[in-house]
Amino acid sequence: MTTTSRNGFTLVELVVVILIMGIMAISVYPRFISADSETAQSQRDMLLALSHLVQLQSMQDTVNSSTLCPTIVLSATQAGIATTNPCLASASFSADVNDPNQIQFGSEASLAVSGATLPLLLRFDSWGRPTGACSNGCTFTLTQSSATFKVCLHASGFIQSC
Predict the structure, then answer these.
(1) Could you tell me the superkingdom of the organism this chain comes from (predicted)?
(2) Residue range 62-89: average pLDDT?
(3) Helix (H) or strand (E) holding 24
(4) What predicted TM-score, i.e. pTM, was given to this entire model?
């Protein structure tokens, strides 16, 4: 009587193990990535997009920049492009959750700025460099629950997540 020794695994065994690992990974993944961190990350991306938009508007309209004044109004709970008195210190916008040019941070989120104080009016010159309180650069920190994301605005006008 001959005995054969088996070395290795069959294809069926390997497929079953891979399927079980896939099911476990799908069920465990939401514990590592919470909805709060996804919300904070998307709000950081929206803040980056608003900053780039206002910067580009300032760079493209060098003739009328003193009358149009593309401005972002930032507070601890919201940010948006100014629609009322954009050239004045009283620049503001009416909160509208359907406006793509606004970010509502919500009750458990907050925005902080290093290098300036809130509320803040963010404007750029015709070269795309920040003016006013952020002329030497600012770091915006968005915190929601345990998630923290940052946007760095350099004195040269370079805007990035950091």
Answers:
(1) Bacteria
(2) 84
(3) helix 11-32
(4) 0.74
CA 15, distance to chain mean position in Å, is 40
**Above 70 in pLDDT, residue 37?**
no
Cα separation, 34 vs 96, whole angstroms: 26
Alpha-carbon distances of 162 from 41, 75, 95, 102, 104, rounded to whole Å: 12, 20, 28, 21, 21
Annotate 113-141 with DSSP letters as a single string: EESS-SSEEEEE-TTS-EEGGGTT-EEEE
* Nearest Cα residue to 95 out of 85, 83, 109: 83
| C-alpha distances in Å from residue 106, one per residue of 29, 62, 73, 109, 111 | 25, 35, 16, 6, 10
Tokens of 83: 């629609």
32 in helix, strand or coil?
helix
| b (16+ CB within 10 A) / e for 2-11 | eeeeeeeeee
The single residue listed with the structure tokens 């919201």 is: 78
The average pLDDT across 36-51 equals 84
Confidence of residue 36 (pLDDT cuts 50, 70, 90): low
Average pLDDT of the residues in 1-20: 80
Q: Which of 101, 92, 149 is nearest to 119 (CA)?
A: 92
